[in-house]
Amino acid sequence: xxxxxxxxxxxxxxxxxxxxxxxxxxxxxxxxxxxxxxxxxxxxxxxxxxxxxxxxxxxxxxxxxxxxxxxxxxxxxxxxxxxxxxxxxxxxxxxxxxxxxxxxxxxxxxxxxxxxxxxxxxxxxxxxxxxxxxxxxxxxxxxxxxxxxxxxxxxxxxxxxxxxxxxxxxxxxxxxxxxxxxxxxxxxxxxxxxxxxxxxxxxxxxxx
Length: 208
Fold this sequence. Notes:
single chain; 9 helices
């Protein structure tokens, strides 16, 4: 399974390098000092679509299913690869903003955890839809995603700032930290596990 992850790293190394540079520039040059790191999640989400589109263009599924690996391993490798890549992007952004004095190490760590939670929930939804709907989902999804980023996300963020995020930051801050973190972590793990099982089932039913 790790060999499959390594294969993706090698095949998509140029794409990963490009997104890494864009992520650092976006986090340090385009975001204001008080902007939350979770905005970087949009780049990690875009990378998921780009990676899936690359696999479809190269017919990677045909190659992978000709190798002595199970479909469970193929799906698992995709989950591991995208979680690891997303963590890399978010981690680089957090480190860059910390070194430039744009946030404290404690804030960088907490915002990294929040951002990775958002990305993990996104991946848990993305993969079952991708394995269930196929390349058409990626083609249509990329258009919808980028329209949402360009047109809807800025408007939604400005509205949220205007209303102080409807008191959610204060509400979260008032809750006990450790039980809250455990609850979110447990819910995230369960959702990801269910997503993985559904993806394995959907991918196992495909014909190549």
